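Worked example

This section walks through a single chain of length 214. The input is the sequence exactly as stored; nothing has been trimmed or padded.
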Amino acid sequence: MGAGTDDCVVLVADAKKKVVCAIAQVRRRAQMAMDGVPEETRKMLEEGSSAYMRPPLPGAARMYPETDVLPVPVTDAYYDGLVLPELLTDKAERYVRETGLDASLAHQMVYSRQCRLFDAAVGQGVKASLAAHTLLGTLKELSRDGADVAAVPGAALVDLLVRVETGAVAKEAIPPVIRALAKGAGYRYGDQCSCSVHQPGRGAGRHLRRDYRT
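Given that input, the structure is written out below as tokens.
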């Protein structure tokens, strides 16, 4: 056959159709070897060789460490410097301990999307009970009534709560103010909370104005 000591000879014996397919795969694998180790999962065979089994699974589905990637050493300094997130159960207990929030409300808050707004409001001096009832209760009630509370910026909610806490806005004004914000109203906060709500279909430039004073 004229093969040398550095040559690889592959012999395939079977029906013509299978032989043609097998030779094509051998050629393809030989070409792939020139680019590096193929990314695939192989299974061990009893005679000591291996066979293709499946493509590599994504990270979350892997059941064993990556075998063709070098290990990354983790030093004690790196490990000790890791900042672990606070467990939700621990956060709920901290809310109860530090803010006096009811345990049931604290549990609801830590699992709520409004948790960060709650932290921001309480961090600016808003009572935990006022922030929790507004973010967990009032928003839900307004949403059930058809208000698009998701459109209200979080910063506006926190600012409103701060104004209520400081007495610049009456507590009773919270629902109508949030409802107006959900409709796209613009607000200016000062000695009073005022909003200008555009009413579509009632003529260009026509607005309704409401002021909420303490």
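What to look for: The mean pLDDT is 82.
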